[in-house]
Design a protein that fits this description.
Helix content: 10-25%
Strand order of the largest sheet: 2-1-11-10-7-8
Strand content: 25-35%
Number of strands: 11
Bound molecules: zinc ion
CATH class of the domain at 43-56 and 70-158: Mainly Beta
Oligomer: single chain
CATH architecture of the domain at 43-56 and 70-158: Sandwich
Largest sheet: 6 strands, antiparallel
Structural class: mainly beta
Order of helices and strands: HHEEEEEEEEEEE
Shape: globular
Length: 160
């Protein structure tokens, strides 16, 4: 994760920049507010009541800007299929998800607890936290700064 402020290239799983010491969540959150990127929250989430806690920030290197995700008990991650009625809360279609091997219903994020939990939904290409493959349908607790990989799509999750 490259520090949004000093551009130091940090190791995986780092939550505070090793060079300047700044909190990466706070730096990413500044981006969300100043650049009005809350629009990246999907329509379903916008209809939801505002959460009392701070949103999760999903950072995709290709995007260079974080996606704010309202904290909810169950968030399906994958890509929307026009042929299917299955709901996807975090739709990764626009990040080249299909080419990167993301399944329609790839993983589920449970984010109502302080520490969010990630489950692989028996996806075709697997879900990984910091390079470790998850056993399907088993919950794994996340730490802020963890790298999440769905197939070959890489993102980092920050929260506080
Ligand atoms: Zn820094």
């Amino acid at each position: 994760m490259q520090c949004p402020d000093c551009h130091h290239e940090n190791l995986l799983g780092v939550n505070q920049c090793e060079a300047c010491g700044l909190n990466i969540y706070d730096l990413l959150m500044d981006d969300v507010e100043t650049k009005q990127l809350a629009r990246f929250i999907s329509d379903e989430l916008e209809l939801d009541k505002p959460s009392s806690s701070q949103p999760l920030l999903l950072y995709l290197p290709s995007l260079q800007t974080p996606i704010a995700i309202a904290r909810r008990p169950s968030l399906a991650m994958g890509r929307k299929d026009p042929e299917s009625t299955l709901l996807v809360d975090i739709d990764l279609t626009r990040f080249d998800a299909q080419a990167l091997g993301v399944s329609r219903q790839h993983a589920r994020l449970e984010a109502n607890q302080m520490l969010p939990v990630l489950l692989d939904l028996n996806s075709y290409n697997g879900t990984f936290i910091n390079g470790q493959q998850l056993t399907p349908n088993e919950p794994y607790e996340l730490k802020s700064g963890d790298e999440i990989r769905l197939g070959s799509l890489i993102a980092s999750l920050y929260f506080k």
